[in-house]
Amino acid sequence: MNSLFNSRRSPTARSRLARLVVQGVAALLVAVTLSACVRDESDPAANAGASPTPPATTPPTTTPPTTPPPTTTPPTSAPPPDTTPPPVDPNPPSTPPPMSDVQRFQATLYPKLRDPANFCVGCHGVAQIPTFAVDDVMTAYSVITTQQKVNLVNPELSRVYLRPAVDRHNCGANASCDRVAADFLAAIQAWANQQPAPTPPPPSGPQILKSSVTSLSSGAGATARADANVVALFKFDEGTGTTTVDSSGVGTPITLDITNMEWADSGLKNVTGKAQANATDSRKLFDMIGPAGQFSVEAWIVPANVTQDGPARIVSYSSGTATRNFMMGQAVADYRFRNKSAAANANGDPALDGANPDVAAQLQHVVMTFDPAVGRKIYVNGQVTATETAPTTLAWTNDQTFVIGNETTSDRPWQGTFELVAIHKKALTAAEVQQNFNAGTGSLVTLSFDVSSILGAPGRVEMLAGQVDAASYLFAKPKLVTDVTGVKVKNIRVAVNDGVPVAAQAFRRVDTTVAQSGTELSRLGAVIPVALGADKDQFHLEFEALGNKMGLAESVAPSAPPVPAADVPEPALGVRSFSKMNDTMSTLTGVSRGTAAVATLYTDLRDSLPATDDILAFGSAQQAAIQRLATAYCGAIVTNTTACTDFFGACTIAAGTRGTIADRIYDRLLGVNLANQPDKAAVNAELVDEMNDLGCTAGCTGATATTALQATCSAALSSAAVTIN
């Protein structure tokens, strides 16, 4: 149920809360199930491409003789069989006909997508987009190729493989997901192995107009980072899933388990959650930094505000609020550095604070260093904001846990977005800090594609580019830089390793004449699939027209439309859209929509809430947004004593009042005498169990009562009984 409390709820409690949603309206669960399906396509005729049966070597015995017998002497027995050999094709093919790519798909991956045991066909074999598992092989093939669900150059980057392997999407338990992923990967590799060598274009007719070749490492702004002593590096470029993994390549990678955080376009966003390593992975930092006796913690972050305190934990190596090896934190407008040394207590105090203020609600580069010869320093955007002269030594212990976004006890959340976190076994120098600041997050660089040989004069196309996640690159803002005027530019394609990906070529639409150097050619962005990886992939541009030269237009088959489901009935129920959801929660709770915490969160969540009342379009991500909004509304109640007493009857929970509180929640949020509402007694039991699970079996007060009241309120407010319209 409510994501804020997942970390504190037992499996039994989670199953109880789940039944509350089930009792709301079954149709919503059907919609969520549909949205959870994988996207892929389906299969061809089972015997397509089979060879015809060869002719028999001996003709039938009933074949009449070539000369009829004399009419005066009827035969007394059957004539002997004709021994003439059957006709033979005078020009037999020297080799069997080549398989088409559709046939290769049909013989390798397609059967795996159609296999019910692999979970795709139940959704993507019916009408769930993308329809790569439907029973028409041409439709399935079109979707799987034009929507870039497979990568035949590097099968391990195929989206249809990553969904079960990494996202664990709709494939059951881990063992089942591993089996499905292995099946898909083997099939994609078999398909890739059957690909013919590329055929060069014929010498006559239009030729390919190609720019020079370049790579991300050659781009302007691609400053190398000072990572010679890095021991852990998190780039947060996974973009999906419940883990983020150390990519330093040093020792055993540290894996952070993500709870109640969200993937953002630029990284990992936190409001109330955290990403935490296990004890074994965390030990890596102690083992590598302890012998060095010095370290640096570095982060590219975007603080959500300059008011959070605690201090809010940005990066911590600790075991609670009072014991740690180090901490990078935010104390309102200051960054705070705690480090356990011979001169500090178990919590790393006294802390070192940055210059006030050094926190800004924008992208910042923050580095904290410890050198036993001089002590600690804090850098913000390459500049020193705090320093000390206090020689000492580390006094770390090996039982601490590495965590970002919160304390290990989940009670010191930091709100903001992580774009990069690095731990170094060295106190970075001022020059190294400046170098990493200049390198940025590594998100975008400027690539230069030389086109002088096409124009017959100096010229280049410049374009922003960068890797956005493990499977894709972003290309944006192309512009032509040349002294030549009146240059015709048409149909730009981005090629990777001499191949032009079929889909996502947004610059195909370019058709213009450039009158001035530096003119932007397109405001669109193109998302191109990764082939061999950012360190190996090579890029060039191709054009249909550039200057007075004409090249290949390269027509592309459109993506096949989804197969419509036959006679799908219109749902009798709908889900409240974003504005209706907000209005409903405000009316039911009595909390104004203008309340600061609610209004701010609603603005952030609006695009994640349902856009229409179509229940078939409802997705699990929308339910997560609904839960967060419900948590904010219920939080506004419990933090106001008057409102809390009016809503729940009291802001404390006595042992004998849990049932009464549950009844009040039902009456206020779910209503009475309404059709299709869940049974009141059943809901009452679930809400009472929720209060029990949160420590209020014998009654509770203070923060425990506040948490329990907020949890039960938001569980009911985010349930299907409220969201169904």
Description:
- The chain has 725 residues and is an alpha+beta fold.
- It is built from 19 helices and 28 strands.
- The strands form 5 sheets. Strands 4, 5, 6, 7, 8, 9, 10, 11, 12, 13, 14, 15, 16 and 17 form a 14-stranded antiparallel beta sheet that branches.
- α1 (11-24) runs antiparallel to α17 (680-696), α13 packs antiparallel against α14 (620-638) and α17 runs antiparallel to α18 (702-717).
- The longest helix has 20 residues, at 174-193.
- It is globular.
Low-pLDDT runs of 5+ residues are 1-79, 82-97, 555-563
Q: Report helical residue fraction.
A: 25-40%
Tell me, briefly, the overall form. Answer: globular
Structural class: alpha+beta
Q: What do the pLDDT scores average to?
A: 81
Structure in a nutshell:
Helices cover 28% and strands 22% of the residues. The protein has 725 residues and is an alpha+beta fold.
Write the layout of secondary structure elements.
Elements lengths: L10 H14 L1 H10 L4 E3 L58 H7 L1 H6 L6 H4 L6 E3 L3 H10 L12 H7 L8 H20 L15 E2 L19 E5 L8 E3 L9 E10 L2 E10 L2 H14 L2 E9 L8 E7 L5 E8 L2 E6 L12 E2 L10 E8 L3 E6 L2 E5 L13 E4 L11 E9 L5 H10 L5 E6 L1 H4 L3 E11 L2 E11 L4 E10 L14 E4 L4 E2 L4 E5 L9 E8 L2 E2 L27 H12 L6 H10 L14 H19 L2 H8 L4 E2 L3 H13 L9 H17 L2 E2 L1 H16 L2 H4 L2
Helix pairs in contact: 1-17, 7-8, 12-14, 13-14, 14-18, 16-17, 16-18, 17-18
